[in-house]
Write a structure and sequence with these properties.
The structure holds 2 protein chains of 2 kinds.
Chain A lengths: L1 H7 L4 H27 L1 E7 L12 E6 L1 H4 L8 E5 L7 E8 L4 E5 L8 E5 L4 E5 L9 H4 L2 E2 L3 E10 L9 H10 L6 E4 L3
Antiparallel strand pairs in A: 1-2, 1-10, 2-9, 3-4, 3-9, 4-7, 5-6, 7-8
Chain B lengths: L1 H25 L1 E6 L15 H5 L2 E6 L13 E5 L7 E8 L4 E3 L7 E2 L4 E5 L9 H4 L2 E2 L3 E10 L5 E2 L9 E2 L1
Antiparallel strand pairs in B: 1-2, 2-9, 3-4, 3-9, 4-7, 5-6, 5-11, 7-8, 9-10
The chains are: A alpha+beta, B alpha+beta.
Keywords (chain A): Hydrolase, Membrane, Mitochondrion, Mitochondrion inner membrane
Function (chain A): Catalyzes the removal of transit peptides required for the targeting of proteins from the mitochondrial matrix, across the inner membrane, into the inter-membrane space.
Pfam family, one (chain A): Peptidase_S26
């Protein structure tokens, strides 16, 4: 019974082999893409007001590299993509303000008062803040994040192609404060 | 010709390693369990010499990283919050939003959003959430489903919540 099946497969063997070969090539390409986007370089689309004026409200596309974060070479002032500590399925883009052992001084509520608070970042932690202090949900709300949540470091802007027109900076400041958008989203190409 | 043989072999080796790394990152992998903080589930310290010398190897599945939906009693692999280069294996004792208290402290802690409380089965010697607090779910790298070595203990890892803990 099985022998007859195999005998009938005769003319199809070459077609099956060709299909398997093509599938395997596609699978190899997929694996190569995975390695590159997980360990070397990837793209991220950011949107939201928390990194104004560095990043615009409308979606920006950035390139992020993952090599230096794997080796712990993140420094103060870097813009990093990290997993949201309050929702692991989402990502956020913030700037590194303090590394472990640093003493970070910050204003927790810029709208209400100018009260400063100081905190020492614990071992293995990173203090991140958005550039737009009025509307950013960052370490001032959820505390220092674990270094392991950092996915990559932004190093190149692809889109949009024009820079922000700095002559309208006063209008920008007014729009930053009145912005109702508290939702900041980063989409990482981690397929 | 020797050079083309070497080139062929190198190509096959590189392809195999790329495929292995991808499958191990996205689908399933096998890792050794070091230490006895999960004794007796892994690395139990029995009298037998054979088991004391070799570590347990466990099967870790990565499909849970799509939705990050875990249950009480899942054994998970996670990056240490103190050192991102190390990974630990512990059992999940509490999920986000729950109030949780352990035997030892009289404190009751509410697990923040997006975090979980992990504890080792061997409460006597285990570096877990009792030392570093609740960990973010984003640090979890996979869930342990089976023990694959040593042969006498091959089998599924049951998802039982840790004993003796009170939930409010």
């Amino acid at each position: 019974m099985v022998a007859t099946i195999f005998r009938n497969l005769g003319p199809y063997v070459s077609a099956i082999k060709a299909a398997w070969g093509k599938t395997f090539v596609i699978f190899k390409g997929f694996c190569f893409l995975h390695i590159t986007s997980t360990y070397v370089i990837s793209a991220a689309v950011t949107s939201g007001p928390s990194m104004l004026p560095t990043m615009e409200l409308r979606p920006n596309v950035f390139l992020m590299e993952k090599i230096s974060t794997r080796f712990g070479k993140v420094s103060r002032g870097d813009i990093v993509v990290l997993r949201n500590p309050q929702d692991p399925r989402r990502f956020m883009t913030k700037r590194v303000v303090g590394l472990e052992g640093d003493s970070v001084t910050y204003i927790s509520n810029p709208d209400n008062d100018d009260k400063f608070e100081t905190i020492v970042v614990p071992k293995g932690g990173v203090w991140v803040e958005g550039d737009n202090k009025y509307i950013s949900n960052d370490s001032r709300n959820f505390g220092p994040i674990s270094y392991g949540l950092i996915q990559g470091k932004m190093f190149w802007k692809i889109l949009p192609l024009n820079d922000i027109d700095l002559s309208g900076i006063n209008d920008l400041k007014r729009s930053i404060r009145s912005c109702k958008l508290k939702f900041c989203n980063t989409i990482v190409f981690n397929f | 010709m020797a050079t083309s043989f070497l080139w062929n072999y190198t190509k096959k080796f590189v392809t195999a390693s790329i495929i292995t790394v991808t499958v191990s990152d996205r689908y399933v992998t096998v890792i050794p369990v070091r230490g006895d903080s999960m004794s007796p589930t892994f690395n139990p310290k029995s009298g037998s010499l054979m088991e004391d010398v070799f570590d347990d190897y466990v099967l870790v599945e990565k499909f849970c990283l799509g939705k990050y939906k875990f249950s009480h009693g899942d054994v998970v692999v996670f990056r240490s919050p103190l050192n991102h280069k190390e990974t630990h294996i512990k059992r999940i004792a509490a999920l986000p939003g729950e109030w949780f208290s352990t035997y030892h402290n009289s404190d009751v802690v509410q697990i923040p959003l997006g975090h979980c409380w992990v504890e080792g089965d061997n409460t006597a010697s285990s570096m877990d959430s009792k030392s570093f607090g609740p960990i973010p779910l984003g640090l979890i790298r996979g869930r342990v489903t089976h023990v694959v070595w040593p042969p006498p203990r091959i089998g599924a890892v049951k998802s039982i919540p840790p004993q003796g803990l009170a939930f409010f």
